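#struct-pred

JT: dropping the chains for the assembly here, can someone run the whole complex?
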Amino acid sequence: MGKALSKNPAALLFVLLFILFASVILGDNISDSLFLTHFDPSALPWMFMINAAFLFVISLNFITLIDRLDRGSLMKGVLIIHLLVLLIIRFLVEIKFKYVFPFLYSYAYSAKMIVFLTFWTMANDIISAREAKTSFPRIASGGVLGGILISFSVVVIIKKIPTEDLILVWGGLILMALPLVHVVHRSYLPYLKSATHIPSGKSRLAQRLEDFSLIRNEALLRNMAVIYFLTFLLLFAHDYIFLSTLKETFISAKSYFLSKADSGTIFSAISGQDTTKLILKKEIPTFLGLFKGIGNSITTLLQLTLAGFVLKRMGTVRSTLVMPVLFFLTYSLILLSLLGYLPSSGPAGYPFFGNLLFFIVLSSIALRIAVFDSIYSPNFQIFFSALKKEIRGRGKIFIEGIVKPFAILSAGLIIVMLFKRSYVLSVSILLGISALLLYLCFSIRKSYSESISRTLSGGKTDRLQRLMSSKLEGESPEVLDILEDVIDDPDPEVWDFAVTSLARTGSEKGFEILSAKFDRSGDSDKARMVILLSELKENRFFPIFAKGIETGSVAVLGPCIMAIHLLDVYDKEKRLLPLLNHPEVAIQVRVIVALWTLAEPIRQKDFVRQLESILKSGKMGAREAVLFALSEITDERLWVIMKQTLSGLTCAIKDTDASLHPLWIRALAGFEKEEAGTHLLRLAEVLHVRHLSIVESALLTNLLHHEKLLISALSDPADSVRRLAVRVLLKAKSQLTVNLRQAVADSVENEIKRLYKLSLFCAVLNARHPEDEVVEVLIGTIRENVIKRHLGHIVNLFSLLHPTEILSAVPDKITSESRHIRSNALELLENNVTHRHLKHFLLLCEDSDHETLQGISKSVWNFSVPDIYFTLSALFGETDKWVRALTLFTAHRLEERTGRQEYLSALNIAKPEVVSVLEGLLYA
Amino acid sequence: MPKTGDVLRLMENVIFLKKYTLFAGLNTEDLRSLAVIADEIEVPDKAFAVKEGDAGDSMFIIKRGELKIIKGSGDAAVELAVIPKNSYFGEMVLFEEGQLRSASAVASGPCTLLIFQRDELIQAMREHPSIAFEFIKMFGQRLAKTNDQLREANKRLLNLTREKAS
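RK: done, full complex below.
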């Protein structure tokens, strides 16, 4: 097997399924023929039930293995065991053991199911959900082709090899599949590793109970099971109606067939045999052979051409509607025909003979076979990709091995019980079931999205979350003793833990330990202890804080004032007022903050004056102290002070002292003025990413009050400002106004256009300088610093237009290195967002398709291929400093290499300026 | 400002680190913090880049040329390996300050090395945790590889024991 093939999983799986399907179809033919040769056909209904039971038992055993073994080894194991069983069966046939035939009949059915479901589970592991939309129909077509080929071949082979010996050919095909499975296993080992292990020391029953409890707790699997059950129920009933109408139609056309009969049939009829039986025995298999041959060919054609396109275009959830709609229409038409609401006759001639009902049923069944094999079945497999890997295999067995046999049994019972009583009633019930199926398929979107969302967010178990959120309750004397011992630990984290835990006990003993610790601590420990205790806002700690005030130490005073400020104690003012004239400005402002809400308006005016004088004093730390006051007091009257603090600074970001940035943010957050919002937005351009979430919170109320500012922020030239504005809107979770909605919609379009432009630039650079390492790094940086970041930003914009919690995990996962995770994120988007540009966006995220991307980029921008000068010039206008620096460096290197000045001229930079511009970009 | 005092050299080193080294997964800003602390030295043919028994306080990346790793000296010298261009060595200093070099590295032809001093590298990791993450990834891969080798050796040992026993 060539390396090229192993790099293309779809091609490899196509060939493998071709062989497996051929073996299965051959196996079906052999088991059917041998059974019917040795037993009466009247035993078949019983065999159906035995098959279902047999499959159920095998599935029960297989379910504990499928997710706990490496799936490549499992597939090999399944095929080797299958091969050995076939050899044993051949031996039993040889010794003329009669009951081997019913066993073979049931075994062939179960082996088929196990081989296919192991195969498709393996395919799900290797191919992501997005790729599956185009790959699965093609892989499935390999199976159908294998089936067609073996069906035609059997006609020839059977003349030379007896049916019993075909068992060895069947085994030979399995043997042929083994090396292919080995190649798949070796090539995709990381994807096929087991996701969970076989628990040791657990009984089989306990294991099975655990398996079923996992399955039961997965909402998507429950929905899939119900859908699968109803689909198969309707499908078997459909088959029954088809066969019975076929028989009726052909019996009614007896004279037609007699007129065309060959001499053998006529001779048999003359010799007294039942002519009806003679006709049916010959005409029905002929018709079915023709019908299935044409049907399978059409299916293969569909699988290779339209199916992938339809699945991709319609999306996974909408594609599930295909079958229910078909069933609903079919049963509606059958019912209308039975009730006489349709014309009494259909097309004349073979094979309809004027029977409208048969025309309806035959057309619908042809359509159903094509749609089921090319769209519905591959699409149903895609749903399994949304399941966590550790239950994917068990889910599949549950559906195929347990739900399906149950559906077969139920369909059999419905047919036996209902159709014998009333045809119209039966079809009415089937119509009702079709409607129910349609409803369930509509509602599967929710559980599908939730399942992907859980897979994407990692899904901490409830138990783990409870454990993580549980807190130590230290009320027992032993715990208090331990805490008393560790409160003097030199490790600050242990110390903090001991103080917090003692404070939370609420006990007298805990308080005494804390008070004694406070007395013997140095100033810095005292301050830290006060800060920790102040977070609890409990009046019982007031004596400790009062002791802190009495120390007179500046380091302890500040935290104590702020701690008392948070308490509800009567002599707060009396204790704090004397400190208003403390020589340290930091202490003065803390007293102002603590007393602000208690003060009369006149006193508040005094406080404002005091703050002004502190600011004007020019003392060390004066600006920081005033900013602290502004960040703690929410009062629009203080805007005067804010303006004075800002004086000399065109914007808060110009403050060279970066340690003041958090204070600036908190201070500005207290004002709802548009100007405050503008300052906060501009901060996004320079702040470290860890401060951005504080800015987001600070902007929450401000931006929502200033729609114009928000709208302008959405189209701000700075990327960081646009991203910040969108995150603020997301955090606010409020309904968008009409204007805002329009602005967000415009943003989606502009951002997507911009990313296409950048993608095209990357393609142009790559095409012109494919081997250049600087260009390569420039392209990588454009993708990493701009395109990838903006993909998440666009998802946030989509979330604003289609508010749903389900998309919250998508922005981080849409650029994941794992194809499977990326694919799941895109599935969530595709099934929860309806936007005219969504398909363009999805294409941007699936970087596999560069050629299409380039084509669309050109059409979006009406470009002929732009020259590299234009590209460099446009990239130098980007706001990301690394894109600009690398663009300049690329131009510089190309100019040095080629001697052409156009590269730097395109950027309006003279050669001597290169170093200074680069320094400005990288060291500013 | 970079130690080289040359922004063009800094850009070249950022590109080299991004394109060819174990730091390829880092973004340009993180790479800048590495390029800024990197010293570039030229090592003539057959000169020692590090000597066995010296106290190690830096990690190296080979920008040009290749180095031989030699254990012992004089006639007892044994060549253990050849480190090709774009590879790194001396990374174990990250774990133990002043750890002695366990082997010598000798230039095989003229070489250019990027040197990262331990303290500066650790400081860069503190400021840019992604750098530390790249090291963790590298050590993780190495651990997995060692585990595989151990498993393989163990299997061979078992087979050998069985063969001898039979």
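JT: nice. Confidence is low (pLDDT under 50) at residues 1-6, 459-474 of chain A. The radius of gyration of chain A is 38 Å.
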